[in-house]
Each structure stands twice: as structure tokens, then as C-alpha cells.
Amino acid sequence: MTESTAIQPPIATKAPEGFSPPKPDWLSGTWYVTHSSLPMWRSKRNVNITYKPLEESSDGKARLDSLVTYQTLTSNKVKTVRGIETEAGHENTGAWNWRGRGWLVIASSHWAVLSYGGSQGAEQWAVTYFEKTLFTPAGIDIYSRSKDGLSTGTLEHIKEALQEIDDRNIRELAGVMFAIQHDEYEDA
Q: What is the pTM of this model?
């Protein structure tokens, strides 16, 4: 990979110069979580997130329907988490607010796209940062459009960029990232 991978500081109040967050259309579709620092994914496999565009909120913010699916390492049962993502803030920073649906309506989180790359037909990826909540610590995820993950070169380039960011917390989280298993599965 020859292009530069700029990683922005997490949850900026204004997008850094030169950073243009991905549009909701680019985020739409299925993403495979291939690497994470979040402990909740350590005992999971086949973690993916599907975003679908929704009508804008009453104050003109972009919204996405989200469906997270995963399996535990020891079961074929597919578990799901549904939510609504609403663009955060008034500046286009790549930050989003998540609110659970159903029994998870009481749960919420704040997350942001720190960096992303690729285009349709090419290796697409995103790096996301999740702020600490009552239920989870802060963490970062690497997403890929392919369940096979990213090429070794792209993954190493992203990891190097994460280690170079001027944010100690992000560097520490990047240092404890682990790979998430993806395999063939059927709902049991």
C-alpha cells in the first residue's frame, strides 16, 4: 500500500485539517470486525456490522440502522444487537452516537471513524474508536469489507499509523489489539 494512512485523534470536536470523514453511503453495507482491543470480542467470532441508511433526524443529522451479528467461540447460535447510529455534533467529524434498540434501548455509546481507505472494488477498511461506557472500556476496531480481512501490507500500515498517533491511549489500545476469527457458519 503506497498511500498515506492518517489517523485522526478520537472524537474531535472539529475534523482535523485534511481529514474528510466517510459519508454515510460509504459506511453502508456489511463490515467484518477483523481486529479489536475490546475485551467483549475476545470470546466471539464472526463479528460483523451491517449499516443501512435511514432518514435524517429532525435536526438534519445522518442516521444509520445498525445490526451487529456474532457467535461465541463455542456455539453456532448467531446473536444480534440492533441499534441506531446518529451523526454526532454539528461539524462533520466522523463521530456517531449509537443507541440500542429493543431491550438495549437504555444502552448508548459514542464512537468515531479515525481513518478509512479503499474504494468500491478495492480493499476497503475503517478504524473506529469507541469511548468508554458503563459496560465497556474504550477501544478500537479495524473493519474490513472482506471476512478474510485485510492484506498483510494494509494491516501493518494501519497498525504503524496507530502507533504514530499523538495520543497515548490510542497507541496503548493498538498495542493490545487481537485478531477476531471469521469462518463459515450456519445459524443453529
A: 0.88
Q: What nine digits make up the cell of 106?
A: 437504555
CB 43 within 8 A of CB 187: no
Q: What is the pLDDT of residues 100-156, one digit of tens each?
A: 677 665 666 889 999 999 876 678 999 999 999 888 899 999 999 998 999 999 999
Amino acid at 78: V
Task: Collect all residues with Cβ–Cβ distance below 8 Å to 144 and sequence separation of at least 6.
Answer: 31, 32, 34, 123, 124, 125, 150
Per residue in 63-108, pLDDT (tens digit) is 999 999 999 999 999 999 999 999 987 566 788 987 667 766 566 6
> What does the DSSP assignment read for the chain?
--S----PPTT-SSPPTT--PPPHHHH-EEEEEEEE--GGGTTEEEEEEEEEEEPPPTTS--EEEEEEEEEETT----EEEEEEEEE-SSS--SEEEEEE-GGGTT-EEEEEEEEEE--TTS--EEEEEE---SSS--EEEEEESSTT---HHHHHHHHHHHHHSS-HHHHHHHHT-EE---------
